[in-house]
Amino acid sequence: IALGKTSLILVKLAELTQLTPVFPSQDPLDRADFNAVEYINTLFPTEQSLANIDEVVNKIRLKIRRLDDNIRTVVRGQTNVGQDGRQALEEAQKAIQQLFGKIKDIKDKAEKSEQMVKEITRDIKQLDHAKRHLTTSITTLNHLHMLAGGVDSLEAMTRRRQYGEVANLLQGVVNVLEHFSKYMGIPQIRQLSERVKAAQNELGQQILADFEEAFPSQGTKRPGGPSNVLRDACLVANVLDPRIKQEIIKKFIKQHLSEYLVLFQENQDVAWLDKIDRRYAWIKRQLVDYEEKYGRMFPQEWCMTERIAVEFCHVTRTELAKIMRTRAKEIEVKLLLFAIQRTTNFEGLLAKRFSGCTLTDGTVKKTEVPPPSTNPFLEDETGTETDEIVIEKSDTDRPKKPKVPDNPFHGIVSKCFEPHLYVYIESQDKNLGELIDRFVADFKAQGPPKPNVDEGGAVLPSCADLFVYYKKCMVQCSQLSTGEPMIALTTIFQKYLREYAWKILSGNLPKTTSSSGGLTITSLLKEKEGSEVAKFTFEELCLICSILSTAEYCLATTQQLEEKLKEKVDASLMERINLTGEMDTFSIVISNSIQLLVQDLDAACDPALTAMSKMQWQNVEHVGDQSPYVTSVILHIKQNVPIIRDNLASTRKYFTQFCIKFANSFIPKFINHLFKCKPISMVGAEQSLGLRVSALKAAWVLGIRRWVII
Question: Residue 456: is its pLDDT beyond 60?
């Protein structure tokens, strides 16, 4: 009964204290899933603990009474809260109404103040507008007065040819007239504008007539010095329509070059290419004469000296193109190169003297000078050209130098020679053909180069001569043209690179002969140390290595030649330059050379392997130190490999390829001959597989390590 009462009391107490969402608590009575039985079992885990049950019940009842008192106090305290809240709300509403009334009063007062200010400033605004209109009217009237007086003065000065005063006055009148662009609908303003245009037209025609009179196209001789009237007329022309200025310049230059067209007519002897220097000497004298007589007559910003030189270049290019078309059969290579050289020199002189401001694309840029190189093949191509073919094998990854920009006058005259550069290309084709034939003849007469072990093998000197000539041709042609002639020259280069590869390199590789008869064990035993067993002689091995080194040199240099050609040619033609086929040809020569070296050593070892397979291995009763066939193979390896190693010291990777290819060829063949050694006794197997093969392997591994490291 006591426990039942306690349970009911605990349940009631839990209901009173379930405020966990508001006040978190760790008391079991505050849990939402409170279980009275479990809680009682916690308080009284044993029967002995029931002895103090009355004390526990009293504590719980005391706790309930305290909670009831607290709840009662809180409820009574909240009785007057609603009434106090309503009273506070009414007071807030009254305060808001009072604030709204004050704001309305302020707004009304602000509107009254604004209206008062408008009434005060109305008269001031009217005065401001009146002042502005009055100022504009006075300014316009002054401009109109200036315009009317200026037009009258302009017409009077034009009739009296007072160009000095007209130049300043005309510019002022034009500037004033711009202020009346909004008033062109007024008849008087439109009439003044028409008078200004008429005065400008009259000035233009009058100035042109004065220049025509002073510098007639035909007839009288030019005056000895400039005229002040014409100098002032040029200042007026700066203000007039630009066409007037262009017409003056055109007529003056045409009259100035009229003598040139007569002296160097197509039917004159001095007009041909062999006397092209006289053309440039003539214009130099004329420019000096112009500076002395007419240098101060034209404004400096007109650049008359440069314009005369540029027009001379255009006329010369047209005349030279015409005469070369007529006498194309008379053009020879030396004559063409002479004319081009003199012309490019003249264009360089113009670039030093003038800025090229009269040309549409005339810009002058400073050339970048690359750092000096220690390569003996790297030389300046011309006095200012610094691009060259890089011959160093270890320098293929070096960053490319920027292409040296041309001067603004480059090609202004020499462009006319481009259609006739086929003569130069044909000449280079012929010269390269003769050069290849001379290389072939020299090789046959002088024989292969002497071995140069200290420098890692000899490269054929003809390859350096060939690429030096290529470099010279490339530089020369790039100075003449960077268009189609460069493509034609590239085709010639490709042709003779292939010919050099086949005629000089592949054509001089030693030819293999049929293998000699097999050796017997007796003959192997009679071989002396150092006896000559290999098919190729020492000189032939050196020749193969020399051709291999030369082919590698040509391969690397051809790649660099392709890059240089792409730098020289126009950007639109770069894709047409491709020397991959020629580089593949040199790669084939390298591969054939390595294959010859492998075949030679492989063939030298064949008799020993054949003798090994023919031995009566079943009759072998004793194990010896080393078999004759092993001695023979090691001997041939020691004879050939050091020679190849020393001659390929500068091309170590190809010596490594030779070693790998020989191992790949010899080992399968050796294993194949081992299988042919049947029948074989236990002692014979030990002799062949045990000691002899181990000795051969040890000699080969030791030798390869030593040769590769060295």
Answer: no
